[in-house]
Specification:
Layout: H1 3-8, H2 11-34, H3 37-56, H4 61-73, H5 93-112, H6 114-121, H7 125-143, H8 150-171, H9 176-201, E1 205-207, E2 214-219, E3 222-227, H10 230-245, H11 251-271, H12 274-295, H13 301-318, H14 323-328, H15 337-348, H16 352-356, E4 365-368, E5 374-377, H17 383-415, H18 420-436, H19 446-460
Antiparallel strand pairs: 1-2, 2-3, 4-5
Helix pairs in contact: 2-3, 3-5, 4-5, 4-9, 4-10, 4-19, 5-8, 7-17, 8-19, 9-10, 9-11, 10-11, 10-12, 10-18, 11-12, 11-13, 12-18, 17-18, 18-19
């Protein structure tokens, strides 16, 4: 919770907020354990009240709260996963909370700040590129016959959540980006705790079709634990924690940040997902190098030795799960990297219009399942394939240009020594998501889209005099 709200909030605001948080925790636990539809409705209402409270307070913690719901509750948690007839249908808890949080934020901006509206009315290069790509995808969708099915709804949901979260980020600024950074680290640590609890309990999970929103199953003798939504945050949080480690001086906070790094890397190792482990380690190294280049600390034998020991510990922790075995053994046919090759080949065999023009919203192609059998797919593990499927070559061009715009902003702000921790954190988040999405395509999922918006906001938001709290 940001400090300024804590100092000015009334008892009534405190009561609503903490009662809703407690109600969400209890109701969601009951829903997971019993499948009670009443519990789900209570959890959804409580989650929406928390979002509304933060939005009314214009707290930047709201963006971190949405991230927490995605990582800890799950991006696809809805009443259909419970027992009996769901009164709210397939309404997802994350969607309801995001919409509820966005509405008060927009209303407050309209009523109290013409400056905020002016900022929204002046679209930058990223807004223009996003609008062009989305408009083209909608046009291609109409040309393909205005299909309306689950694949189309999934794409529309992505666009809607991206817009809502961006509006939340630019209108809820109380507390600054420091609140978002520390929330990112806290969510990563909590996700690691959730993964550890599921792994050690041995409970069976089936991913997005499970109330736990996690997969927990044996593959080749190794128990793999993968959190829907949580794994993506755990890839990114260690690098943010490293950047904050260099910028805070309180021992308790340093211990918390260290726990986040080790906990996330260990939990990712439990997933035995090679891309997740390698990208997380790569981001940690990149963050450490960025700090060393910018801070230029004096080098000595002791510092070099300590750095080597820390690096060995981090790699060892990350490889405690099944990732080490998968890195040293070739994949079976239609599994792992071979599955990705099959997917790319299937897409390239599509018609020329699909490959170069895309199919728009709800675009699909004949992919393959893990047994090599043909199956209709609207999502691909490779980000370039997914973009081309939806928006063709134009979409790929817009994506490359958007990355160039972000890279230019990062370089410009670092040269100007503006909010280096904030800027580097945003850069690590965006870069990590793009790299991981080359084989996991997290950017085409809600669990990757939410951190992406946060990362872009960190890179694009104005400088602030005090980026860190607890310093």
């Amino acid at each position: 919770m940001d400090i300024r709200w804590a100092l000015t909030a009334s008892r009534w605001e405190y009561a609503w907020f903490f009662s809703a948080v407690l109600g969400l925790a209890i109701a969601w636990s009951l829903f997971v354990s019993t499948g009670s539809q009443t519990s789900y409705v209570v959890a959804l209402v409580a989650a929406s009240i928390v979002a509304a409270s933060l939005a009314i307070a214009r707290s930047s913690l709201l963006a971190g709260y949405i991230l927490a719901l995605v990582a800890l509750v799950g991006p696809d948690a809805n009443g259909t996963l419970g027992a009996g007839n769901p009164p709210l249908g397939s309404l997802r808890l994350v969607d309801a909370a995001t919409l509820t949080g966005a509405l008060p934020a927009i209303a407050l901006a309209v009523r109290s700040s013409r400056k905020s509206l002016a900022r929204l009315r002046r679209p930058g290069a990223l807004a223009v590129l996003s609008f062009v790509a989305a408009s083209y995808a909608a046009l291609r969708w109409s040309m393909e016959g205005d299909r309306t099915d689950s694949l189309v709804r999934a794409d529309v949901r992505l666009l809607a959540l991206a817009l809502l979260l961006w509006l939340i980020a630019v209108t809820c600024r109380r507390g600054g980006t420091a609140t978002i950074l520390w929330a990112f680290v806290a969510v990563g640590l909590l996700a690691a705790i959730k993964a550890a609890a599921i792994h050690l309990s041995g409970v069976y999970g089936i991913g997005s079709f499970d109330r736990l929103q996690a997969s927990n199953y044996y593959v080749s003798g190794h128990l793999r634990t993968i959190l829907d939504g949580g794994d993506t945050v755990m890839i990114l949080a260690p690098a943010v924690a490293v950047l904050l480690l260099n910028a805070t001086h309180r021992t308790a906070l340093k211990v918390l940040l260290g726990a986040c790094v080790l906990g996330c890397l260990w939990a990712l190792g439990l997933s035995a997902t090679r891309t997740s482990v390698l990208v997380a380690l790569g981001l940690v190294v990149s963050a450490a190098l960025a700090v060393a280049i910018l801070a230029r600390p004096p080098l000595s034998g002791r510092v070099i030795g300590a750095t080597a020991v820390i690096a060995i510990v981090l790699v060892a922790v990350a490889l405690l799960g099944g990732a080490a075995s998968r890195l040293t053994h070739a994949d079976a046919p239609h599994v792992g990297l071979n599955f990705r090759k099959d997917e790319i080949k299937s897409f390239l065999r599509s018609s020329a219009s699909t490959k170069y023009l895309g199919q728009g919203l709800g675009g699909r192609f004949m992919g393959k399942d893990i047994n090599g059998r043909p199956v209709v797919a609207g999502w691909a593990h490779e980000l370039p394939v997914w973009i081309a499927l939806k928006a063709g070559v134009l979409g790929l061009i817009c994506a490359v240009l958007a990355l160039c715009v972000l890279a230019r902003r990062v370089v410009r702000r670092l040269h100007a020594a503006r909010d280096q921790v904030q800027t580097l954190s945003g850069a690590m988040i965006v870069a990590g998501l793009v790299i991981a999405s080359l084989t996991l395509d997290r950017l085409a999922l809600v669990e990757g889209l939410i951190p992406l918006i946060i990362g872009v906001f960190l890179i694009s938001s104005p400088e602030e005099p005090h980026v860190l709290v607890g310093r």
